[in-house]
Amino acid sequence: MLIRYFHPPTTDDGHLRCCEHSRVGMRKDLMPRTLDGQITMEKTPSYFVTREAPARISAMSKDTKLIVVVRDPVTRAISDYTQTLSKRPDIPTFESLTFKNRTTGLIDTSWSAIQIGIYAKHLEHWLRHFPLGQMLFVSGERLISDPAGELGRVQDFLGLKRIITDKHFYFNKTKGFPCLKKAEGSSKPHCLGKTKGRTHPEIDREVVQRLREFYRPFNLKFYQMTGHDFGWD
C-alpha cells in the first residue's frame, strides 16, 4: 500500500482553493490520480471549521475518510493566540480578546481562537454529510504522550498494516514533542518545525477557569457524539 501526500494550493487564510470553486469537477482536477493500492491524503486545517466544506467534499467523494486531530480547546486557544502573537506582538492580551464583557464573564465566541474549539458545533455540520464511521478523531494529547499508539489507530482506520511503532520515535525535551528517529529518505531525525512548541504566555488563572466552564458542556456533547471521552475536564 502506497500513501501519497498531497499538499494543495491554498488561499492566504488556509482554505483549499478547490473548495473555492463552484463546480465539483474543477475541485477533482486539482487532486492527483489515485491508482489501485494507493491512498492519497490531503490536509487543510480549516476544513473542520468551514461550514461549506462538508457538502463540497461529499459532492466530490462520498467515500472520503476524514481524520480530525483535536486537543483540549482551552490549550488550543492559548496555542492559537501564541502563534498569532509571534507574528503580531502588538495584539491585545489573551484575556481581553477572550471576553465580550469580562465583568459578566461573557465569552466572545466570534474570536476564532475560541470558536474553533467548539468541536460539537462543527461536527454537527459534518454528520449531515458523512457517517461517523468515516471519521477518526485523533487526540492531540495522545499524539504527544503515545504517538505510536495514536498512529496505530490511524493505520487501522485506513486499513493499513501497523508498521509505525514505538521504535520510530524519541522524545525531544527541548521541543516538548516526540520526533521521528529517521525521516523517510533521510538519515537524520525529523522534529516539528520552529513554529511548533513555543512557550505559551502566562494566562490569568481565573480566565482559564472561566474558559473551562464555558467549554465543558460543548466538550461533553462532543464526547457523546464521537463515543470517545478525551478527558479535557
TrEMBL record:
It is an enzyme of class 2 (transferase). Residues 57-216 form the Sulfotransferase domain. Its EC number is 2.8.2.-. 3'-phosphoadenylyl sulfate binds at R71, S79, K196, G197, R198, T199, H200. It comes from the Eukaryota. Belongs to the sulfotransferase 1 family. InterPro entries: NST/OST, P-loop_NTPase, Sulfotransferase_dom. Keywords: Disulfide bond, Glycoprotein, Transferase. This is Sulfotransferase. GO terms for molecular function: [heparan sulfate]-glucosamine 3-sulfotransferase activity. Disulfide bonds join C179-C191.
